[in-house]
Amino acid sequence: MPRKTLTVEVKGLTKVYSGGIRAVNGVDFAVAEGEIFGMLGPNGAGKSTIITMLTTLSSITGGTALVAGEDVAAHPDRVRRAIGYVSQDLAVDDNLTGWENLFLQAKFYGLTNEQIRQRLNEVLTMVNLKDRAHDLVETLL
Ligand SMILES: Nc1ncnc2c1ncn2[C@@H]1O[C@H](COP(=O)(O)OP(=O)(O)OP(=O)(O)O)[C@@H](O)[C@H]1O
Ligand SMILES: [Mg+2]
Fold first, then answer.
1. pLDDT tens per residue across all 141 residues of the chain
2. Which amino acid residue places its CA nearest to atom 3 of ligand 1?
């Protein structure tokens, strides 16, 4: 069988923070295209540090990381263009509607208003949330 394309490929990934804390120590893993990948570990294991490195928000101290085929350390700009990142907190503004939240994110990605309208209709239909799109997020909980 042909080998699946790897979306994330991490080898020997290491992070030593400036204070000297070795938060990530030679981690290897790979994620194939279309795969849902979970990372489990106790508090302080280094999960968030790995994510901040892979999303270009924090520098890599050692090893290599390829995301969407791009070397994260060498081409962070290319990686940023290829990825979307929804963080654990602050991903959604409760004081806006679902539509407004999505509109804002799409604007950050440089879509035109017409492209945004089309994509949001497509996605909201896909997840069956079109009838709630204009409700404040705080009312959805
Ligand atoms: N900005 C920072 N500067 C220095 N040390 C840090 C920094 N961020 C995290 N650390 C340290 O790096 C280690 C790994 O932390 P990290 O937040 O990556 O772990 P985690 O697996 O995400 O933990 P949790 O399950 O609590 O979210 C911890 O010892 C933490 O105190
Ligand atoms: Mg964390």
1. 556 688 999 999 999 999 999 999 999 999 999 999 999 999 999 999 999 999 999 999 999 999 999 999 999 999 998 998 877 667 789 999 999 999 998 998 889 999 999 999 999 999 999 999 999 999 987
2. 17
Tell me the pTM. Answer: 0.80
CATH number of the domain within which 44 lies:
3.40.50.300
Same structural domain, 102 and 70:
no
Distances (CA, A) of 40 to 10, 13, 76, 138: 16, 17, 25, 29
Ligand of minimum distance to the alpha carbon of 50: 1
Instruction: Give the ligand whose atoms come closest to the C-alpha of residue 16.
Output: 1
The CA-CA-CA angle for residues 53, 56, 59, to 5°, reads: 55
For the record, the structure tokens of 7 come out as 């979306």
The string of DSSP codes covering 61-128 is -EEEEEETTEETTT-HHHHHHH-----SSSSS-TTSBHHHHHHHHHHHTT--HHHHHHHHHHHHHHTT
First to last CA, the chain: 45
